[in-house]
Amino acid sequence: MLAMSFRGPQRVRVQQKPMPEIKHPEDAIVRVTRSCICGSDLHLYNGNVPDTRVGMTFGHEFIGEVVEIGSEVTKLKVGDMVIVPFNVACGRCHFCKQGMFGNCHEANPEATAVGGFFGYAHIGGGYDGGQAEYARVPYANVSPTVIPEGMDPDDAVLLTDVVPTGYQAAEMAGIQPGDTVVVFGAGPVGIMAARCAWLFGAGRVIVLDEYDYRLEFVKNYAKCEAYNFKKDMEDVAMFIKKQTDWMGADCCIDAVGAEAAGNAVQTITGRKLLLQGGSATAMHWAINSVKKGGIISVVGVYGPTDNLIPLGNFMNKGLTMRGNQTSVKRLLPRLIEHVQNGTLNPKGIITHRIPLEEAAEGYRLFSDKLDNIIKPVLIPPSAR
């Protein structure tokens, strides 16, 4: 089968790989019909994540048709079209029982903090992803969800990560009616977080980024204010305070993570020298921009090592910080309802539909922010 293969930093190609096989009675094999390139994939692509191995197939956002099931799979049947959440979760451990499917204690023996993920470095469990024609889906009785009849596959594939992550970002921010919410980052997750903030009653949503085309997009898609932190202000925290009667934002959402720009020291130590678990610029801004007693929600991905953040300001302001990998399975029923009733339009953020064979070009466009790209979707030959 055709599958994307990581060859080293900023080098991927699509090549023939062996077909995935049933390895456990609860496995299923899915013929992929859509997969996405995610901002998290760029952390891998750019060599910023430890233990990203040559030959790995990325892609934690995918949907497809069940073509084979193990002997103990009871909740799916061959022919079902399914949404495959990016979490690999057993459904039985202490954390899964609490709805923390992103923190499954059984699916990832390589780490103690996170659960398993499709298509990530081996710190995510080493599961090959869905940027391929076929994928093996473990614990098939747990997370895969049959796509509701009539749902557009372009909507469905974005329910595997982007929409739930944006929604959970807004949920973790503890937004109260009338709150001012600041979202750092106008990538797909930041865009969706800004859109979902309104669902929780936000009174004002402000998004910051460095790319004008992304700011123009989020301004139209999420009906929010959007500013370029490189052009519209000298100091981000001062700008936000000035915008909020010098109080600070009620909630800040870090939808950027390790690859944040905007601070030379953070960029050099976090992105170039890898002395930190990535650049913590957005986190720094969030702590200094939120009001006293405010809440910071973190869905941007950072590495496992330490980061330089103003911890004294965090404590002295009485802040609350919440973060986690998204629990997609927990959120799916609510989000499917939002899509079906038209409250959310996930496919509206798709700007590029790219043949799987041209995945390398998709990565180049997305990584270099070319051609006004917002969200690229890869389509295998059998789905075209």
Automatic annotation (TrEMBL):
<dbReference type="InterPro" id="IPR002328">
    <property type="entry name" value="ADH_Zn_CS"/>
</dbReference>
<protein>
    <submittedName>
        <fullName>Glutathione-dependent formaldehyde dehydrogenase</fullName>
    </submittedName>
</protein>
<keyword id="KW-0862">Zinc</keyword>
<dbReference type="GO" id="GO:0016491">
    <property type="term" value="F:oxidoreductase activity"/>
</dbReference>
<comment type="similarity">
    <text>Belongs to the zinc-containing alcohol dehydrogenase family.</text>
</comment>
<dbReference type="Pfam" id="PF00107">
    <property type="entry name" value="ADH_zinc_N"/>
</dbReference>
<keyword id="KW-0479">Metal-binding</keyword>
<dbReference type="InterPro" id="IPR013149">
    <property type="entry name" value="ADH-like_C"/>
</dbReference>
<keyword id="KW-0560">Oxidoreductase</keyword>
<dbReference type="InterPro" id="IPR036291">
    <property type="entry name" value="NAD(P)-bd_dom_sf"/>
</dbReference>
<dbReference type="InterPro" id="IPR013154">
    <property type="entry name" value="ADH-like_N"/>
</dbReference>
<feature type="domain" description="Alcohol dehydrogenase-like N-terminal">
    <location>
        <begin position="25"/>
        <end position="144"/>
    </location>
</feature>
<dbReference type="GO" id="GO:0008270">
    <property type="term" value="F:zinc ion binding"/>
</dbReference>
<dbReference type="Pfam" id="PF08240">
    <property type="entry name" value="ADH_N"/>
</dbReference>
<feature type="domain" description="Alcohol dehydrogenase-like C-terminal">
    <location>
        <begin position="188"/>
        <end position="267"/>
    </location>
</feature>
<dbReference type="InterPro" id="IPR011032">
    <property type="entry name" value="GroES-like_sf"/>
</dbReference>
